[in-house]
Specification:
Elements (H helix, E strand, L loop, with lengths): L1 H10 L3 H23 L7 H12 L12 H37 L11 E4 L3 H12 L6 E5 L12 E5 L5 H6 L7 E4 L7 H18 L4 E6 L5 H6 L4 E4 H15 L3 H7 L7 E5 L10 H9 L4 E7 L2 E4 L12 E6 L1
Parallel strand pairs: 1-2, 1-4, 2-3, 4-5, 5-6
Antiparallel strand pairs: 7-10, 8-9, 8-10
Helix pairs in contact: 2-3, 2-4
């Protein structure tokens, strides 16, 4: 009964592992036996195993050769059996490697890393995020979840593709959501605006249920669903309808390449628009004093973020207090 269970367990192993066990057993068996049949030519079992390996691989160095009739007969049996198993082993090993590569391209392999960016939804915005991260050489691992792609859009060791519904706990677990650094949820381009926002909120709820502390950035297409996204726990909301509308209008009002100015205010293009906490020495200074101090170090102070409010170019006597954030432009 016990032997039957062991045999069933053995049959459940991958084919190339089973073949590895058989090849190893043949090497040990024939190598040990030949050292007993011809102890003069093969003083130790190690020499016998070396001869068995060289014979099975058809290399044939000739440094160890059986001399007796029984030894050569034993060698012929090894050639007829061992070579076949060794060839089958390498064939299955190659097939397993190809199968795993195909599974990786098809998005079936779970991600085991940590501190990664999780991008949900494949579109031009997602592509831009990836390309920008490459430009600024931000080497944080990236995991992409999408159910519309037939295969991975990138063959890159730093970008891992998982195919499936991002609102499914199983798919998020394959992306190791519990160890993610941040989650970017873009609007589904294959749905209308309302449906896309509802799906974004559903994905957001699923993400927060799996990892409440992960930083989430969501793209919302309609104003009515923005509040629901905040209620669902979004840390940051990109209202694309508002952003694009403002860029359109300002591009007309200011003209002369205003949209290009917006692009330049990004780390990928050399400048860095940042929001950071002031130092202890900065607290208590007014906006003009702090602007002059930072400007002398090549930093331009744009404004102050206080809670949810943003004050761009406030009055000169605007005083910086604790928990304020500085909006600056650095080179």
């Amino acid at each position: 009964m016990k032997s039957t269970k062991l045999w069933i367990q053995y049959l459940r192993w991958p084919v190339f592992i089973r073949m590895s066990v058989i090849v190893l057993m043949i090497l040990i068996l024939f190598g040990t036996m030949i050292s007993y049949i011809e102890p003069k030519e093969f003083p130790t079992p190690f020499e016998g195993i070396w001869w068995a390996l060289v014979t099975m691989s058809t290399t044939g160095y000739g440094d160890f050769v059986p001399k007796t009739f029984l030894g050569r007969t034993f060698g012929m049996i090894l050639i007829l059996t061992g070579v076949a198993f060794l060839t089958s082993y390498f064939t299955n090993l190659s097939a397993a490697a190809v199968k795993r590569q195909n599974a990786y391209i098809d998005g079936e392999i779970p991600f085991k890393g940590k501190n990664h960016f999780l991008l949900i939804g494949w579109n031009e915005k997602t592509k831009e995020i990836i390309e920008t991260l490459r430009i600024i050489k931000f080497y944080c691992p990236i995991v992409l979840i999408d159910q519309t792609l037939s295969e991975a859009p990138y063959i890159d060791e730093n970008i891992h593709f998982i195919k499936g519904n991002p609102a499914d706990d199983q798919i998020l677990n394959k992306a190791n959501i519990k160890e993610a650094k941040a989650v970017f949820i873009t609007a589904d381009q294959h749905r209308n605006e309302l449906e896309a926002d509802m799906l974004t909120i559903l994905v957001l709820i699923t993400v927060k249920a799996s990892n409440p502390s992960v930083y989430t950035i969501c793209e919302m297409m309609t104003k009515t669903q923005t509040l629901n996204a905040k209620r669902a726990g979004a840390d940051e909301i990109i209202q694309s309808f508002q952003v694009v509308g403002q860029v359109f209008l300002n591009s007309f009002l200011f003209q002369n390449g205003f949209s290009n100015v917006i692009l330049e205010l990004g780390k990928a293009y050399g400048a860095r628009l940042t929001i950071e906490s002031p130092t202890d020495q900065d607290i208590g200074k007014n906006f003009q004093q702090l602007h002059n101090d930072l400007f002398s170090n090549g930093i331009i102070l744009f404004g102050i973020k206080r809670g949810e409010e943003i004050f761009l170019n406030p009055p000169h006597n605007f005083t910086v207090v604790q928990h304020d954030c500085l909006i600056t432009l650095k080179n």
